[in-house]
Design a protein that fits this description.
- The protein has 482 residues and is mainly alpha-helical.
- Helix 6 packs across helix 7 and helix 16 packs antiparallel against helix 20.
- The longest helix has 17 residues.
- The structure holds glutamic acid.
- Glutamic acid binds next to loops.
């Protein structure tokens, strides 16, 4: 039975890299019919940020990386799922390693270690603990029992350690680059590399799927597993996510937390879709996939080992694809929280969403672009005013208002007919009527198709807005915005 985990440290919100790691774990678990575990790695209590665990969970849910077991699942069999609540296990394991001689107490003070480090540096050697407390006698340790100490693991001095990585193949590490690293801090709480090996074992994790930045930690975890006699899980280290210029990804490149993407109005299923392509690709190159489709196709073998490049434009494109492909009612539901103006019964909300979504990448844009349906323009795009509210415009708007007020039927065809008839009788191009109308109704020069706008707004509002614009032009008082 495949069991995988995502193990965030609750030190902030869920970022793009973490969300990608969680999703890949989720997809793999689902594909294999296994379980996906959420473990909150609050090993370092001092770095814990209140509310972060909840924020992480919200973020995971919003990209669909749903866990089967975690701190919030009642009665799950491998709990507790917060590392801080597993301290007794870590202490037990450390006790055992000490008793069996796989680990030892180290009494070196920070000053002594610093001196040692400087000494090695002067000789051009890498900073590495000498292991001098390895050889303290049991007698001596007993005498110093009350002194501040840490626990260090005895690391093999020679040979090499091989990480068999599903994505990267065999990754070899020479053992001499490691020193006897600390596994228990002076307060007898574990460091990450110690706790993680025990927790993965205790939770029966079969595959450790995580970011490549953890690859250098893996040999240390293998040393711990070896000392404790644990079976080794399989490893899969996911490629880094870099900025387009291959620099470290940051906010500057538009990358941000899942919750911020949500607030920007990125369509969340599109974000999930985008994330699953950061390092993985579908066998037939399909780019738009639902999570179910990705579950069916997912394999770790298809994860690339070269860095994935984050591209904000592509994410927005993806968001746009979902904006236009999901059902109107789904988009309408998603858009509601972004509407910061009063809606009215008319025009009908879903119909407005439908004519507006073609031009929006995010829900924030969609909400902005829908605003004029519910609020008459108070000012007009300056560029448009210069072009379309000049000579003769007031008169044309007046005629239009008159015609439309008297139009027997109000539908797309009758409206097109009315504009055609009027442009013919005035001897002007239809565009000479359409552009001023759009500006009068929406305040803007671009937007959904004009006849769709007119039809949806309805006769009363259309006539009213045409007359308002007409009056403003005649009074030489047209408010503009740049
Ligand atoms: N708590 C670690 C992190 O947030 C997880 C490392 C792991 O998956 O082993 O990076």
């Amino acid at each position: 039975m495949v069991r995988v985990r995502y193990a965030p440290s609750p030190t902030g919100t869920l970022h793009i890299g973490g969300a990608r790691t969680a999703l890949f774990n989720y997809l793999f678990a689902r594909h294999m019919g296994g379980k996906f575990v959420l473990r909150v790695e609050d090993t370092d209590q001092s770095r814990k940020i209140p509310g972060s665990e909840e924020a992480m969970m919200r973020g995971l849910k919003s990209v669909g990386a749903l866990w089967d077991e975690g701190p919030d699942t009642d009665g799950a069999p491998y709990g507790p799922y917060r590392v801080s609540e597993r301290l007794h296990r870590h202490r037990q394991a450390a006790d055992m390693l000490l008793a069996e001689g796989h680990a030892y107490r180290c009494f070196c003070t920070p000053e002594e270690l610093e001196e040692e480090r400087r000494g090695r540096q002067a000789q051009g050697l890498p900073p590495r603990y000498s292991g001098r407390c390895r050889s303290l006698s049991a007698e001596e340790v007993k005498i110093r029992a009350d002194q501040r100490s840490v626990v260090r693991l005895k690391v093999p001095l020679e040979g090499e350690t091989v990480v068999h990585d599903i994505i990267r193949g065999e990754v070899r590490f020479e053992n001499r680059i490691f020193d006897d690293f600390v596994i228990m801090k002076p307060d007898y709480t574990p460091v990450y590399n110690f706790a993680v090996a025990i927790d993965d074992h205790d939770m029966a994790i079969t595959h450790v799927i995580r970011g490549e930045e953890h690859l250098p930690n893996t040999p240390k975890q293998l040393f711990v597993m070896d000392a404790l006699g644990f079976a080794v899980p399989q490893f899969a280290h996911l490629p880094m996510i870099l900025a387009p210029d291959r620099s470290k990804l940051s906010k500057r490149h538009g990358a941000t937390s899942v919750e911020e993407y949500r607030d920007q109005g990125i369509i969340l299923p599109a974000l999930a879709n985008y994330l699953l392509l950061l390092g993985w690709s579908s066998p037939d190159g399909q780019e738009l996939l639902t999570l179910e489709e990705a579950v069916a196709q997912f394999s770790l073998k298809r994860v690339q080992h070269t860095a994935a490049i984050y591209d904000q434009k592509k994410l927005e494109w993806m968001s746009h694809q979902y904006m236009t492909r999901l059902s109107v009612s789904e988009i309408a539901e998603m858009a509601r929280p972004f509407i910061n103006y009063a809606l009215k019964p008319q025009p009908e909300f879903e119909a407005v969403v439908d004519v507006s979504r073609e031009r929006a990448f995010t829900l924030v844009q969609l909400a902005q672009q829908m605003r004029f349906f519910y609020e008459a323009p108070e000012s007009y795009e300056a560029k448009g005013v210069a072009k379309h509210f000049g000579e003769g415009a007031a008169q044309r708007l007046e005629l239009l208002a008159e015609h439309l007020a008297a139009l027997p039927e109000w539908n797309h065809d009758s409206l097109v007919g009315a504009y055609d008839a009027l442009s013919e009788s005035l001897g002007v191009k239809r565009a000479a009527l359409i552009h001023p109308t759009r500006l009068a109704l929406t305040g803007r020069t671009v937007g959904p198709g004009l006849f769709e706008i007119v039809e949806l707004l309805g006769r009363e509002l259309v006539v009213e807005r045409l007359r308002t614009a007409q009056t403003r032009i005649q009074q030489g008082n047209v408010p503009t915005f740049a």
